[in-house]
């Protein structure tokens, strides 16, 4: 922290070697280390500045996924960092406590850079989150859970798609925080898991091996108005969920990903991951657990935009050929939105395969899914939503600026193979 209160972070993208399996070194990329990156953390109202140095031998960027910030600081494909160069974005945190993340965003190369290990968490805190009696001791009862699927090709991380795989690369096993076969000792009755799907293409339906219920307390952009009890939460690439699970002394339970019902047709289910299941993380409770306070009945008031106030609607058809049939072009601005206004965006997928939809700079409200009110996991602040085939979603978004007619933000499918091959568009706020 500097004298004027600015919180300063240093990130260096670099090559390394990681021993995922004993005695086998795998070439990987990481921030400040050989794989993944440090968890950054800042408070609402704080100024942050990040010194990002590119220690790779190819150009890349670092994007702050879920962060509300000026377009020039966003780290999208227009803020490339040459090998050896340093980029120093800065902004003031102006949004609620949340589990955000950061990753590269070079156009056409995002899948490759993320898959090699460039990703990390960016946690935000605020006064309300500090006051609420939630598990919040980082690494003790508040655990980061970065989920990635991988496949090993000898010592290397594979990155190729199978012949039947139209969603992108799919691994045959998962890692948590870069660890294979992970387990965690648990010392407290209530455990908060901050789930991030940092996989390039795979969607998960998380739950527990004994089907126990858990409480969803937060989505992509922060806490819900109240905890919602459920036994599955589905996360497509880029999405986050904060859940709280109750543990019993001495037990072992596994966080698992289950086959998904709403993923797609039989082809998609079978060959593109819908039917797959994985043991993701084993929780091993101590013989004695520290008591935790009960979850509060209410969490935070909603700050989500209101669809009634929308001044304009836009339509996004998710097609493999490009959103609205227009493949991404760096020099084309697709949409111009007016600062300070609310809009309703209708996102439709009739493309036969799963897609998702991510919008930079904002946290939006899901207003409708196929004409109905959204289910609880889609009621909180979202920046990325899963849009399986046959789905039409209405989103309410508010663009609060600042205005910058020359620098676009992105919207795209966050299945990174799709993003890289054209399912992305650009908007400016004026
Ligand atoms: Cu997480 Cu445009 O990305
Ligand atoms: Cu983003
Ligand atoms: Cu897609």
Strand content: 35-45%
* Hetero groups: CU-O-CU linkage, copper (II) ion
Query: Mind telling me which CATH architecture of the largest domain this is?
Result: Sandwich
| Number of β-strand runs | 32
The CATH topology label of the largest domain is: Immunoglobulin-like
Rg, Cα atoms, Å: 20 Å
Shape: globular
Task: Give the CATH H-level superfamily of the largest domain.
Answer: Cupredoxins -  blue copper proteins
Task: Report the top-level CATH class of the largest domain.
Answer: Mainly Beta
How many distinct helices?
4
> Termini, distance in Å?
33 Å
Number of domains: 3
Structural class: mainly beta
Question: How is the biggest beta sheet arranged?
Answer: 7 strands, mixed
For the residues shown, what is the average pLDDT?
Answer: 97
Strand order of the largest sheet: 14-13-10-16-21-18-19
Low-confidence stretches: none
Helix content: under 10%
Task: Give the SSE layout.
Blueprint: E1 7-21, E2 24-31, E3 40-43, E4 47-54, E5 63-65, E6 86-87, E7 90-92, E8 98-103, H1 110-115, E9 120-125, H2 127-131, E10 142-150, E11 152-153, E12 156-157, E13 173-176, E14 179-180, E15 183-188, E16 190-197, E17 204-208, E18 214-219, E19 222-230, E20 233-235, E21 240-246, E22 252-257, H3 266-271, E23 278-290, E24 310-317, E25 335-337, E26 341-349, E27 355-359, E28 365-369, E29 384-387, E30 391-399, E31 409-412, H4 416-420, E32 424-429
Parallel strand pairs: 1-4, 3-9, 10-16, 15-23, 24-26, 25-32
Antiparallel strand pairs: 1-2, 4-6, 4-7, 5-8, 8-9, 10-13, 11-12, 13-14, 16-21, 17-20, 17-22, 18-19, 18-21, 22-23, 26-30, 27-29, 27-31, 28-30, 31-32
The structure holds CU-O-CU linkage and copper (II) ion (CU) (2 copies).
């Amino acid at each position: 922290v500097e004298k004027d209160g600015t919180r300063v972070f240093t990130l260096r993208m670099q090559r390394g070697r990681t021993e995922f399996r004993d005695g086998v070194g795998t070439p990987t990329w990481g921030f400040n280390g050989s794989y993944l990156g440090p968890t950054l953390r800042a408070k609402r109202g704080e100024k942050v500045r990040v010194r990002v140095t590119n220690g790779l031998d190819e150009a890349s960027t670092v994007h702050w996924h879920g962060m509300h910030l000026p377009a020039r600081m966003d780290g999208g494909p227009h803020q490339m960092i040459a090998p050896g160069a340093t980029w120093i974005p800065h902004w003031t945190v102006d949004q609620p406590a949340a589990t955000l993340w950061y990753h590269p965003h070079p156009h056409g190369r995002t899948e490759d850079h993320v898959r090699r290990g460039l990703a990390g968490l960016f946690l935000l805190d605020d006064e309300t989150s500090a006051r609420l009696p939630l598990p919040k001791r980082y690494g003790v009862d508040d655990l980061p859970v970065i989920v990635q699927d991988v496949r090993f090709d000898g010592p290397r991380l594979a990155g190729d798609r199978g012949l039947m795989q139209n969603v992108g690369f799919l691994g045959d096993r998962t890692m948590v925080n870069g660890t294979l076969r992970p387990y965690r000792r648990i010392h407290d009755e209530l455990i908060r898991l901050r789930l991030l799907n940092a996989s390039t293409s795979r969607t998960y339906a998380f739950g527990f091996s004994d089907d126990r219920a858990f409480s969803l307390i937060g989505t992509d952009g922060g806490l819900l108005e109240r905890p919602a009890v459920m036994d599955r939460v589905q996360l497509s690439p880029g999405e986050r969920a904060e859940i709280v699970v109750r543990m019993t002394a001495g037990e072992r339970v596994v966080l698992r990903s289950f086959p998904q019902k709403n993923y797609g047709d039989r082809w998609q289910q079978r060959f593109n991951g819908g039917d797959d299941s994985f043991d993701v993380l084993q929780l091993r409770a101590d013989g004695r657990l520290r008591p935790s306070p009960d979850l509060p009945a209410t969490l935070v008031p909603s700050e989500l935009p209101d669809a009634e106030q929308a001044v304009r609607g836009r339509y996004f058809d998710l097609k493999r050929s490009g959103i609205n049939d227009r493949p991404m072009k760096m020099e084309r601005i697709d949409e111009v939105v007016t600062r300070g206004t609310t809009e309703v965006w209708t996102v439709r997928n009739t493309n036969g395969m799963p897609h998702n939809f991510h919008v930079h700079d904002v946290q939006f409200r899901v207003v409708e899914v196929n004409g109905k009110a959204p289910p609880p996991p889609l009621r909180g602040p979202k920046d990325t939503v899963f849009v399986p085939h046959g789905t039409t979603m209405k989103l309410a978004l508010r663009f609060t600026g600042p205005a910058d007619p020359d620098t676009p933000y992105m919207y795209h499918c966050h299945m990174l193979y799709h993003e890289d091959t054209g399912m992305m568009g650009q908007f400016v706020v004026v």
